[in-house]
Amino acid sequence: MDLKMLFMIFVINFSYITLNTIRFMLTMKGYRLIAPLVSMAEITIYVLGLSMVLNRLDDPLNLVVYALGYAVGISVGIKIEDYLALGYIMVTAILPSSTEQLNLPEILREHGYGVTQSFGQGREGERMILEILSPRKNERSLYKLINETEPRAFIISYEPKFISGGFWTKKVRKRNN
Fold first, then answer.
1. Rounded alpha-carbon distances, angstroms, from residue 35 to 38, 47, 70, 80, 161
2. 124 neighbors 131 (Cβ within 8 angstroms)
3. What is the predicted pLDDT for the residue at 145?
């Protein structure tokens, strides 16, 4: 058993899959310059690692270590993407109408969030509906702020693909250039 070779197979596939996961996330978020550059490094590492395993198929442990590097690479890639928190989220917070006196829209605006307020009718009466745009890096603090102010809020979030108009447009363009 060649431990050095097993370690190299693991590290190479770990690196490949970590880059693969990050490149996929960059591609999905529209990073048109950096995603292809990451893919160049990714495919180079992939060919190197795969050739190492294919040339040593006589030892099944090589394949097991290759698969382990794959699994760990995905996990680490996801953690890196969460840390980078690229892009924006759109959060819809639906509040009981009795929360109007809490003035959550103004509290959110004071914290720098873009908020559009409207009213709707729910099963149990009128509801305040807040549409909130936020950088993903602020996602957790936004949820915390909403829950501290109104713990009964119903919250839904998604990632917008296209943003145009409104006071956020200049901020979004600056970050994407």
1. 5, 18, 20, 15, 17
2. no
3. 94
52-56 CB contacts, 8 Å cutoff, 24+ apart? 52/5, 52/8, 52/9, 52/12, 53/9, 56/5
Give pLDDT tens digits for 83-123.
888 888 999 999 987 655 568 999 999 998 989 999 898 88
Strands (E), 34-124: 88-96, 114-122
Q: What pLDDT shows up at residue 2? A: 86
Tell me if residue 123 falls in helix, strand or coil. coil
Indicate the fold that domain 88-162 takes in CATH.
Alpha-Beta Plaits (3.30.70)
Residue type, 74: I
**Residues contacting residue 79 through CB under 8 Å, at least 6 positions apart:** none
Where in the chain do CATH 3.30.70.120 domains reside? Answer: 88-162
